[in-house]
Amino acid sequence: MRKVFQIDVSNKTRDRQIDSIKNEIRKYIKREKSKKLPEEFNSWFFDCKFGQTLELAKEISFADIIKSVDLANSENYPSFYLEIISRPVFKEKKLSVDEEILED
After folding, report:
1. pLDDT-derived band of residue 94, with 50, 70 and 90 as boundaries?
2. Contact 2, 83 (CB under 8 A)
3. Above 70 in pLDDT, residue 44?
4. Cα first-last separation, the chain
5. What is the pLDDT of residues 61-76, one digit of tens each?
6. What is the pTM of this model?
7. Cβ contacts of residue 12 below 8 Å, gap of 6+?
8. pLDDT averaged over the chain?
9. How many CB atoms are located within 10 Å of the residue 68 CB?
10. CA 6 – CA 29 distance, rounded (Å)
11. Angle at 95 between CA 94 and CA 99, to 5 degrees
12. By C-alpha distance, which of 90, 94, 95 is closest to 43?
């Protein structure tokens, strides 16, 4: 998803538009996570960028997406750019405490 979201829309209140944007983002992430992973991969990773415009966009962590939308609202941005690109990754399984003791 590479998109410029308009916050100031003539027929909606600002808060309602922010809720709509957050819902669209969550639906996109859910849809991407439900896609079938290629072989040799076990998880999805999301590369994210956020900024008032495409040129001003900076990398952000996946956990900060909704916080960034709230920031745009509190800073009274008329619009903002958000980029979320999914890519498959292989994550090593973390050992539990019991498994670590058994290995020693």
Report:
1. confident
2. yes
3. yes
4. 46
5. 999 999 999 999 999 9
6. 0.86
7. 20
8. 93
9. 19
10. 19
11. 170
12. 90
| Alpha carbon distance 35, 32 (integer Å) | 5
**pLDDT at residue number 101:** 62
Q: What is the token pair recorded at 54?
A: 């495409």
- Contact, 48 vs 60, CB < 8 A? yes
Q: Which helix (H) or strand (E) holds 59?
A: strand 58-60
The pLDDT tens digits of the residues spanning 79-93 come to: 999 999 999 999 887
From residue 9, give the alpha-carbon distance in Å to each of 5, 50, 52, 69, 72.
10, 20, 16, 16, 14
Backbone angles phi, psi at 2, to 5 degrees: -130, 110
**Contact partners, residue 39, CB within 8 Å, separation at least 6:** none
